[in-house]
Amino acid sequence: MVLLGAGCSGQETAKSAPASKPHVDHQSQHTVQHQASASGAKPQSKQPASPASGAQSVKQPERGALPDSKHSRADTRTNHEKSSTRLSEQKPSAASEPLIFFKGSGGKKVVALTFDDGPDTYYTNQVLNILKKEGVHATFFVTGKNAQAHPEMIRRILQEGHVLGNHSWNHPDLTRLTQSQAVAQIERTNTVIFKLTGMRMRLFRPPYGKLNDQLKQRFHQMGYTIVNWSVDTRDWAGTPVAKIMRYVQHQTGPGGIILQHSAGAPGHLDNTIKALPRIIKYLKSHGYEIVTIPELLDKPAYMGIPHK
């Protein structure tokens, strides 16, 4: 089991940290290009549209969507004995509650390291070894397909004090699916994690960071905390270590959420492994405390387990 800690709450819209050069919208680039890395293919660089415009162009996902299925609305009562992982339908707790968190409040000099797409047994093990050596904890947004294939890695993530988040079943662009297909992607992954750990994840990161307004509202009403990022290392694109470090240095500020990855074909994320110790050293030397997403946002990671 995993012990969680408290922290500060987040803001909805991301703000760029001071930079010595014009800001590049790395989140949109990740949205467009990371589709290639999900299958191990060599990504190609394209100039993204601004997230603020709402116009994001992506290629059709290479993985097949789950079959459409009907889902009844869950009872609003929490029932921990049910094997179903649907979170209770609930209204937003406050009118000011953001639909998506891009960073924490910025009130404290804290940052969160996050890793998408895992687990696997090659890169996830290396990431965990580094985190253990450095004495820091991170949040892993896992796909259900990989979690089912590598249950031992899910157990190691939790045993070493890290946090699990939902990253869909097989990493499709959810905006290209029907609403019921998109919900099924999330619930199927939660079912796998529940069977492995007895816990239902509440943290959710959409593949490519993409959700339309309807899905934002839907997942928010279901009780999910939707988490994107404010710092994109672009590690999935084979970015050189020195450039990864520049992204971290230019974009990181108090409350920052740093995006990295922990699964891929051998050779694909070698620079992630090389850069991670340097990232941690940089953050510590500049007075940052490295925390998990629940600590950063003061949100529970799992349904029915109080956040401490």
Automatic annotation (TrEMBL):
<dbReference type="InterPro" id="IPR011330">
    <property type="entry name" value="Glyco_hydro/deAcase_b/a-brl"/>
</dbReference>
<feature type="compositionally biased region" description="Polar residues">
    <location>
        <begin position="29"/>
        <end position="59"/>
    </location>
</feature>
<feature type="region of interest" description="Disordered">
    <location>
        <begin position="1"/>
        <end position="96"/>
    </location>
</feature>
<dbReference type="InterPro" id="IPR002509">
    <property type="entry name" value="NODB_dom"/>
</dbReference>
<keyword id="KW-0479">Metal-binding</keyword>
<keyword id="KW-0378">Hydrolase</keyword>
<dbReference type="InterPro" id="IPR050248">
    <property type="entry name" value="Polysacc_deacetylase_ArnD"/>
</dbReference>
<protein>
    <submittedName>
        <fullName>Polysaccharide deacetylase family protein</fullName>
    </submittedName>
</protein>
<feature type="domain" description="NodB homology">
    <location>
        <begin position="109"/>
        <end position="291"/>
    </location>
</feature>
<dbReference type="Pfam" id="PF01522">
    <property type="entry name" value="Polysacc_deac_1"/>
</dbReference>
<feature type="compositionally biased region" description="Basic and acidic residues">
    <location>
        <begin position="68"/>
        <end position="84"/>
    </location>
</feature>
